[in-house]
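Table S2 (text version). Query chain:
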Amino acid sequence: MTARTTAARASIPRANKGAAPRKAQVLSASSGTGVPGSALAKLQEKVRNGEVTAPDQKVPAVRKEPESAPVFFDHEAMTQNLARRRRRKLGVVLARMTCLIAAPVVATYIWFAEYATPFFASEAEFVVQKSEGSQPAMGGMMGAAAGLAGGSGQDAIMLQSFLTSRDAMDMLEKDHGFVATFSSDEIDAWHRLAPDAPREDAFELYEKMVRVGYDPTEGVVHLEVLSPDPETSQAYATSLIGYAEERIDSMTLRMREHQMSEAAVGYAQAEEGLRIAQDKVIALQEAYSVLPPDAEAGVLSGRMGELEAQLVEARIKVAEMERLKSPNETVLRIAQERVADFERELERVRADVVGSTNGGPTQAAIQGEIALAQGEVEARLAILGQSAQQMEMARLEASKQMRFLSVSVFPGMTDVAAYPEVWKNTGLAFLAIAGLYMAISLMGTVLREQVNS
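Corresponding structure-token output:
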């Protein structure tokens, strides 16, 4: 302390020695009067402060309350004390952040840099394409069959869903032993699978190791496969592309098989219709004892032509004999009878063509009915030929591949591990831990203020 402070403290008791008895007398005198309590309290306060001097009179002595000594502040000491407290709080905060943030971040870095298993990536890119069928040549039902292919975007989305499904994982497990690969002791504990691991655990790891993306603007599907060695990654990616091509083509197989069965049914119906039409023609020919229309017409036409020629010849002979001056009556009569026979025969043949026999239908009606039946046979033949063509086209469409994967980037091998990304993962861990720490600290501060208020 300074000399001025010491002198001020020493002067205080001496200044109050003479005033103390007089103040006590005022207080005693006031207590015996009828002064109200509030006024008495004010008077006592003034006496204590030395503003009022009590008269010299004898009053009963009263107890004097002790007075507190004035306090003098040392600013330098206060500044040092505040600095000491700030350093202590800063040390506590730094220690807390070291334990709760720095230590986990350093542990994360050590894990990814020293203990995490390196994974090698094999990447591929491909697009879905459909085969171009000859739709105009097929027409009708087969034209619809050739247009089975939907939009490539829809096919790519379905393909993306398949590659990240349990079916693809099961195929990969069957052909390459996916679970056995990640059950090795060389795999770190975070990614290692137990030999008897549940199927769901294997599928969770499969979703991490196989990443599929689709670019809707370009229609390109991007495939990335991770494994502990580059050869396995390449084998996995190649097999997955093969599985995807088989699955995308089999999506239309059911429709193509349906079209094939419909074409076969149509061919069978056309064949049955042709058989019925032919049976009808044969039944008509047997019922009327006639030849087919073409043959029957040829026979009748030939018979009528032959009779007309013979009739003309006989008439010529009769005419020659009639021009003789003294013809032989017997010979002339025989010639005239022959002409009459030819005429009757010709009339009978003509009657057979246009007239009825024994009250039955006429030959023309018979031939017309047979011709109609024959026309139905020809129509059925045309239908059968078209059905046979459609069935053949359906068979070709069902046997050929309708969907293809056009691979632009084939799976390859890399000699540098793509994962883990040490600094990236460490930075993400730092951000996550620091954010969690700040959120908890802020929440604790808010709760403390609420409780204190």
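Notes on Table S2: The chain has 16 helices and four strands. The first strand starts at residue 120 and ends at 130.
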